[in-house]
Design brief:
heterodimer; B: seven-stranded mixed β-sheet; four-stranded antiparallel β-sheet; 11 strands
């Protein structure tokens, strides 16, 4: 079962920042937070991941709370092409790693023109 | 190639027919995963290979499903005696190391009629 809770859907105006929340209150010390998205008729696409520090790459920023029980994916300037289902996943790495990722239902993000 | 390639892109099978779905992972990627995605649902894990070894097949729904990766590169997912409930998109993903994100292919959409 997925270890995360996400809103079913969200809307965001084009050009604005899209902030997608994720709760993972039972996260363990060796579990990382991963984000993927799936645009219609495509396979999921890796976005970003982190353990406890905030992370940023060319696609997005990931903000993880100090207690690590929740996180927010930020798309700084959303475009229509960002319309997709966004999946927040926790996955153990290291010695007792999860070899597979388990997808939940994700958040369906609609970018509005 | 630069990405994960899956073929065919679409497959229509008559109930009872056997099908074979192919996945070409990114060259050098050690891990390979198969997922099944029903309409409107998140991807569901089927099986996982590390090189040629099938380390986890816990997600295969029945003994009609079989996957192989004989030389540690190309993988084939075979479904025998297809049933209507097998209709779904079958996704393949590969990764180099455990800390890396997965790269997914665009999937094969199987329709059983």
């Amino acid at each position: 079962d997925a270890k995360t809770t996400q809103p079913t859907s969200m809307d965001c105006a084009e050009g604005r920042a899209a902030n997608l929340p994720c709760n993972h209150s039972t996260i363990s010390g060796n579990e990382y937070v991963y984000w993927y998205r799936q645009i219609h008729s495509q396979g999921p696409q890796y976005i970003i991941h982190g353990l406890k520090n905030n992370e940023t790459n060319e696609m997005a920023s990931l903000i993880i709370t100090e207690d690590r029980k929740s996180s927010t994916l930020i798309l700084p300037h959303a475009t229509l092409r960002d319309t997709a289902v966004y999946y927040c996943i926790v996955r153990a790495l290291g010695l007792n790693r999860d070899d597979k990722i388990i997808f939940g239902k994700g958040t369906r993000l609609h970018i509005l023109p | 190639g630069a990405g994960v390639s899956q073929s065919p892109r679409y497959k229509v099978a008559k109930r009872g027919q056997d099908v074979a779905l192919r996945c070409d992972p990114i060259s050098g990627h050690v891990s390979l995963f198969w997922y099944q995605q029903a309409l409107g649902q998140g991807p569901e894990f089927l099986t996982y290979f590390q090189n040629e070894a099938q380390l986890d097949k816990s997600g295969l729904p029945s003994d009609r499903f079989f996957a192989e990766r004989p030389e540690g590169s190309v993988s084939t997912l075979k479904i025998q005696r297809t049933q209507q409930e097998d209709s779904a998109v079958y996704l393949c993903a590969s990764s180099y190391g455990q800390y890396d994100g997965y790269t997914f292919g665009s999937g094969t959409r199987l329709t059983v009629v």
